[in-house]
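Q&A log
Question type: sequence-to-structure
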Amino acid sequence: MVSTASLLGLVRFLAQFSYNTLVGYTTAIRVNIFILLPAWGMRNAAATLVGQNLSAGNRERAGQSVWFTVRCNAIFLRSVGVFLVVFANPIVALFNGEPEAAAIAASCLLLVSCSYVFWSFGLVTVQTFNGCGDATTPTWINFFVF
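Response status: OK
Response body:
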């Protein structure tokens, strides 16, 4: 709910600008969400690994699972970020033919791709709290981050 409300607030803010700004932003966010799907899968795997290892009484292995998944996710998202730096314009052109909106979408993707390595850490570590059975900590983290 926190992330959805944040994104809605951002869209409301962007709606004050030009139509092309809003279209460019929504195009970039749709591409970004598609890109993040495997990263979300890895974070859910980390939560499962942590929950299973904690239930088995193996705290050390639970911690190792978190950091291994963070590394895997960081490698994946770093690779995607480099791919976006090279191919942001052609990717956006597939979804948007308006030159001004496409330029805004490509800029947004380039900017967001710079944060992917940090996202890899945040996505996995926040979700592992859920794997531990703690839903309060991720809610507060997301509240302040978003």
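Response note: Residues 18-135 form one domain.
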